[in-house]
Amino acid sequence: MRETTRDDALTLPEWIAFVGLRNGALLPCASGTYEWMSKDHAEQRKAAQLCRSCPVMDACRNYALAAGETIGVWGATTPADRRRYRRQQQAA
Ligand code: SF4
User: Fold this and answer.
1) CB 47: neighbour CB atoms within 10 A?
2) Rounded CA gap, 51 and 57, in Å?
3) Handedness of CA 49, 51, 53, 59 (dihedral sign)
């Protein structure tokens, strides 16, 4: 995973517009099949796996990392993945 800074992330309004413009594309999290906001780790892993086919996965993950999102699956990362990434960045 490459390093992410606030500068290469979308602002929240930009992110909402970005995803909104792609409503015609099939975003896996729009399926409602899996719970992207689940607290269950196994469900989070399933959702993260489905994110891997998403056309906006990198932008989604970059946004979540830069914005410090602590809840939910974003860009194929679980909250635990992002905590681990933040700890690695702080230790570097
Ligand atoms: S990468 Fe983001 S927009 Fe795409 S399915 Fe996952 S959570 Fe949804």
Assistant:
1) 24
2) 6
3) negative
Show the ligand 1 pocket: residues with CB < 6 angstroms: 19, 27-29, 36, 51, 54, 56-57, 60, 73-75
Task: Supply φ then ψ for residue 91, to 5 degrees.
Answer: -80, -20
pTM of the shown model: 0.76
* Residue 75 CA from chain centroid, whole number: 3
Tens of pLDDT, residues 28-74: 787 666 788 899 999 999 999 999 988 888 888 998 998 899 989 99
Q: At what angle do helices 79-91 and 57-67 cross, to 10 degrees?
A: 60
Q: How many CB atoms lie within 10 A of CB 9?
A: 18
Q: Reduced to 3 states, what is the DSSP secondary structure of residue 54? A: coil
What pLDDT score does 4 carry?
43
| Residue of the CA atom closest to atom 4 of ligand 1 | 54
CB atoms within 10 A of CB 35: 15
